[in-house]
Amino acid sequence: MRQISHQTNQQRDLRYPYKHHPTKGTTCTVAPGVAWLTMPMGGSLNHINLYLLEDDDGWFVVDTGLNNEETRLLWEAVFENCLNGKPVIGVICTHMHPDHIGQAGMITERFRIPLYMTRSEYYQARSMFAMGTSGARGWQGMEFYVRAGFDATAMEEAGAKWRKRFTRRHTEGTRSNNSWAQYSFPMSFRRMEHGDILSIGSHDWQVLVGSGHSPEHACLHCKSLGILISGDQILPIITSNVSVYPTEPEANPLKVWIESHDRFLELPAETFVLPAHNLPFMGVRERLRDLINHHEDRMLAIEEHCIQPRTARDLLPVLFKRRLDGGQQMMALGEAIAHCHLLMHRNRLERRLADDGKYRYKSIDPDLSRRAHPGRHDEPDDTPMLV
Question: What is the pTM of this model?
Answer without folding.
Answer: 0.90
